[in-house]
Structures are given as C-alpha cells and as structure tokens.
Amino acid sequence: MKLNSFLILQVRFSFLLLLVGLTGCMRAGIRPMNGLNEAISQFSNSYREPSLGSQWLVSLANYQGKDKIEMIDVRNRRRVALPGLNRADSQPISVSVSANGSRLAIVRQRADQTELLIYRRTVGTLQRIELTPKGIPRRVSIDSTGRVLAVQVSRDGKWDIEVIRLQS
Amino acid sequence: MSCICIASCTGRVERIQGQFQTRNQQDPSLSANGEKLAFIVDYNGRPSVQLRDLRNGNILPLRHLSRNQPHSSPSLSWNARYLAVIAQKGNRRLAIIEDRVTGRSHQLPIPGARIPVRLSLAPDASQLALQVAEKGKWRVEVFDLTKTIEPDQPSGRNSSIDLLGTSK
Questions:
Q1: Tens digits of per-residue pLDDT, A60-90?
Q2: How far is the alpha carbon of A136 from chain B, nearest alpha carbon, in Å?
Q3: How many independent structural domains does chain A possess?
Q4: What integer pLDDT is reported at residue A94 of this predicted model?
Q5: What sign has the CA pseudo-torsion B26, B31, B37, B42?
Q6: Do B123 and A53 count as a contact with CB atoms less than 8 A apart?
Q7: What is the pTM of this model?
Q8: CA dihedral for B153, B156, B161, B167, sign (positive or negative)
Q9: In terms of CA atoms, which chain B residue is nearest residue A74?
Q10: CATH 1.10.10.60 given to domain B24-164
C-alpha cells in the first residue's frame, strides 16, 4: 500500500516537473517590448504586414482609411522619413526591408496596375521591376543586400514564387 | 513541376524546377543571406511551410513543422537557422520558431482574444514582430527573443552555421 502510494506520488511529481520544464523551455524569456509597442500604437491604431531589419520595423500603417508604408527605428522608437515613397494615388500591398534598412521591396496597386518596386532609401528613388513573363505580384521578401527578391506572383490562376536577382 | 524562377532586370531568366507543379506556392520569405527560401505550399488543402536551398534546389527537413497546419507567414533568420511561422495548435493560432541547429522549437502563444496573423523575424533572430487581430483591428507587437535563443549572425560569426550548409 505504501509502495503504491509512493509510486503514484512519484509519477505525479515527475509529470509536474515535465510540465513545468516544458512550459519554461518554451516560453521563458520571450517578452513584449512594451516601450516600442506603446510607441507603435500611438502612431496609428492599425498596423499590418510587419517586416524587421536589423534595426528597423517597416509595416503598413493606416491613417484615416489610407494605408502608407512606415519605417520605425527600433532603437529610438522614432519614425523615419521615406521621401517620395507614399503617394496619394497608390495603395501599398506588401513591403519588405533589407537588413541594413537601405532598401525596401514593395508591391503596390496604382490605377489598374499592380507594381513591384525597389525603394533606395539613401537616395529616395523608386525602381520598377518588370516580371517576365508578365504576372501579378502579391507579396515580396528581400535579402540583406537588397539585391535578391522572392516574389509571390499570380499567373494563369495559380500562385508561383519567383526569385529575382538585381544587378545593382 | 512547379517553378521557382530566377531572373534579372536585364532579362536573363533561369528556372529552378520545384516539386509541385500543380500546387500553389505563397508567402515567400528569404533568409537574409539570400541562400534559403521558406514558403507555403498547399498540400490538398493543408497549407504547409517548406524550406528550400536556392543554391541547389533541395528541400530541407523541418523537425517540428510537419504538423500544426495550416501554416502561414514564414520568416527566416540570417542563415535560416531559425524559421518562424504561424501555426495551429488545437483551436488556437500561435507563433512557432524552429531552431534547425538544436532541433528545439519555441512557442509563442498569444494571450487574450488576439489572433496572430503575420510575423517577421529580425535577421539575427533577436526580435519577432507579430501582426495580431483584436476587436476588428490590426496591430503590430514586437517581442524580445534575446533571453530565449542565441543570435543567428552573418556567416563566419556563428559556430553553428556549418550545420546549416551555409557558405562562407
């Protein structure tokens, strides 16, 4: 009887240890960055499509019903100017930032066109990237150098992924 | 055979043959070093994350992400040591980060009524940006991972990268 009770107690204790251990391993240390998150929520009450660089958070922020691409310096929690990028006649759909924050890859809707673009932040220029064969871009991801893109493209009613290597 | 297409601005196009010609491929995410690509493939109505080495086209194994579908919004660290994705566990959506070196996974359940929609991992995996839906609004929250997982630095600065087949 005592042996049975001891065994049951041991099994329960082991289970409890396992549960605590697993929970601890999985969740320990993953903490919200409260200061940054408060700053983000004060800028706009709607953010989506986040993309993190080494020091930058780029996302689509909504202001009075209009989406715009916004870049935040994670270290000082300040917004960074993106001259020439957001236009009144276009709607951003997807954005991705290079690790050093110098380039942004963008998919945007403008008039009846869906465009894939590269924005060079240091010089404030936009370059349109043509898809060959033609297709409709939907999402984009950029590598650390800003010279390799992976793009989700619609062709013939099917989603494919293209990797595009830019030469400059 | 589905195609992942490599193109340049000057029109040179190289196609890498994939495995699933008839399946949709969505949500591309490049590793910061540009060598690995994570994306979502639709397996008979079960969107599942897949990781591909762009240098040779090989599909790389994922220990923890063969279940918990549907997957969405994959994101890779610098050398693709870490792959983060939104997955399903029971009746909840949550973020899962798989460490391809140690084989461990880290789960980030979202408390309350917030539903994770999209995510982005910082290149060194020090932070995770999460788009959540709450009361009909989208917000972005950033989490600090530095106490939980070791950084994935650019090539040559991390002893673990040889295990990932990353060139120096």
A1: 999 999 999 999 999 999 999 999 999 999 9
A2: 13
A3: 1
A4: 98
A5: negative
A6: yes
A7: 0.85
A8: positive
A9: B142
A10: no
